[in-house]
Design goal:
By secondary structure, the chain is an alpha/beta fold. It contains 21 helices and 19 strands. The chain is elongated.
């Protein structure tokens, strides 16, 4: 299922809207504290540890995050732990739910101590060496840079990592909730519990060194609130309670979808084969590859599963040209009902590819396209072609290809992938997949889907060709472009995770990725087209 990933400002809006609907702030804070307690128990159980008798140092900031820490301290006391709350603001100045829960915890016997002006925890830890440190200093609303006192606290917490379990509430203090960057440093937690939904800065792969294991726990936010202010981001995740809905199995190969791959050249015959193999493993019922004459025989020999059409060269000797659309009319017609095209793998450059891409885009009533690899370079040469793309199409650039399309360097794309994807969405109404660690996919006007995975087994030549085939198979099955891209990225990533068990130090090739696609797909509860599955749920992301 897809789960919402609200930006920090959107989470703040959800909180405010819940209050307007009549959900008491005390209820949300109490729910957060109880979920934090449950998550902490889960983390400790995995380490064969318990709360009873543990010394727990809780850092309490001045906001709601600090209130969660104070409320949690009360529950820890009831569990038989020994909590000590170090608070950044005088308790007499704490307002709202945070103030009420802090004063309640103190009356019930929880020890409180003010944070020093410099943020030095040395004397506190000397007198109270903690087994567990709960980081409730700063929440997801933090922005800018850590002030000196906060920076000292963050450094002190990190200095305890070898002797204590570091457990962050909502987000590690110092981490930007929007992009996952430290400002300039952040708590390096062993585990983080975040409430109601993860935030983008917690999902990006680079954030994992700060979040540790990420546990997402709902706290009773009304669905109406989330529907009225939809999150700008989503991600695919199975809920921890699990569910399984057997997919509707096609009764005939034609019902499983038809994928046509336009690609290959005399020098590159492997890419279209890998794309076709990815489509096959993702469930396509019929495979067709159309390639220049010089590439058709090796493709046919290496891919007996597909029908291979040899396309005649142009009058100028070019491997690709506009006249090939006449030859492909039958295949295009066959794909219109239950099919999709992949254009670009191994196509080559400077051999007429841009003429073929233009002619295909100008085809009336054409099937949905996945444009990859050399087809993207053809678009970059003729930017007016972007106007011929539609919301049914998917484009899959890696950072280098995105840089060419945007007139940037690959380094600039990687420096701010969110901004790069936003600029790609401005080029065409299609769904854009910016590949790489933490792949981003989405179209203008739709939530951006975040992939949390960093999978070394996918960093191999031909991996992107397989992904293009997977997305095409999902398009051919009836998924719309945004859903097909998001699901395709998730299937592809999980295929790589399967391979990590056999090739933990890498060494796999793209064919192994394709072969693992069917296993990854079977392990996911992929909704049928039109099913509604966006909801909040409890889930975890391991480090």
């Amino acid at each position: 299922m897809f789960v919402p990933v609200p930006a920090p400002a959107e989470m703040t809006q959800w909180d405010a809207s819940a209050l307007e609907w009549g959900v008491p702030a005390d209820v949300l804070m109490e729910n957060a504290a109880r979920e934090a307690l449950s998550a902490l128990r889960t983390v400790l159980a995995a380490k064969k540890r318990t709360l009873y008798g543990s010394r727990v140092l809780l850092l309490m900031g001045s906001g709601n995050n600090g209130g969660d820490a104070a409320c949690l301290a009360r529950h820890l006391l009831d569990e038989g732990a020994v909590p000590l709350v170090v608070h950044a603001r005088a308790l007499s100045r704490m307002r709202g739910s945070a103030g009420r829960f802090a004063r309640l915890a103190r009356r019930l016997g929880v020890s409180f101590q003010p944070l020093s002006v410099s943020g030095d925890l040395t004397r506190v830890c000397a007198a109270f060496p903690p087994d567990i440190v709960v980081d409730g200093l700063l929440g997801t609303g933090f922005h800018g840079q850590l002030r000196p006192r906060e920076l000292n606290v963050v450094r002190a917490i990190n200095g305890l990592r070898s002797s204590a379990l570091i457990f962050s509430l909502d987000i590690p203090s110092g981490l930007d909730g929007g992009n996952g960057r430290p400002r300039p440093e952040a708590v390096r937690a062993h585990a983080t519990v975040t409430f109601q939904a993860a935030k983008p800065g917690l999902i990006v792969p680079d954030a994992r060194e700060y979040t540790g294991e990420l546990l997402v726990r709902p706290i009773g936010m009304p669905r109406k609130v989330m529907e009225q202010a939809p999150a700008s981001f989503v991600m695919w995740q199975e809920s921890e309670e699990g569910r399984h809905i057997p997919p509707a199995c096609p009764r005939h190969k034609g019902e499983a979808g038809r994928v046509l791959v336009l690609g290959g050249s005399a020098a590159m015959t492997g890419a279209p084969r890998l794309t076709a193999l990815g489509a096959l493993r993702a469930g396509a019922g019929l495979l067709v590859v159309a390639a220049p004459e010089g590439a058709a025989l090796p493709i046919r020999t290496g891919l007996p599963e597909a029908v291979v059409h040899a396309l005649p060269a142009g009058s100028d000797g070019g491997e690709w040209h506009a006249g090939q659309m006449v030859v492909l009319q039958g295949e295009l017609a066959a794909c219109r009902a239950h099919g999709a095209l992949v254009v670009g793998p191994g196509m080559g450059r400077g051999n007429g590819a841009e003429k073929c891409v233009r002619a295909l885009l100008e085809e009336p009533d054409r099937p949905p396209l996945v444009l990859d690899a050399d087809a993207l370079f053809a678009l970059a040469q003729e930017p007016e072609l972007f106007a011929l793309l539609s919301s049914r199409d998917v484009l899959t650039p890696h950072p280098g290809e995105a840089a060419v399309l945007l007139g940037l360097t690959a380094g600039e794309v990687q420096a701010d992938r969110f901004a790069a994807h936003a600029r790609l969405r401005e080029l065409a109404p299609s769904c854009w997949v910016l590949k790489g660690e933490g792949t981003l996919s989405g179209a203008a006007g739709t939530p951006l889907c975040l992939s949390p995975w960093s999978v070394p087994q996918l960093a191999v030549g031909g991996s992107g060709d397989v992904l293009a085939g997977v997305i095409a198979a999902l398009l051919a099955s009836g998924q719309d472009a945004v859903r097909a891209a998001a699901l395709g990225v998730e299937i592809h990533a999980r295929a790589g995770l399967f391979l990590a068990e056999r090739w933990p130090d890498r060494g796999n090739g793209p064919r192994e990725i394709a072969d693992a696609v069917s296993l990854a797909r079977a392990a996911m509860d992929i909704p049928r087209p039109g099913e509604e599955e966006l909801r909040c749920a409890a889930y975890s992301l391991k480090g």
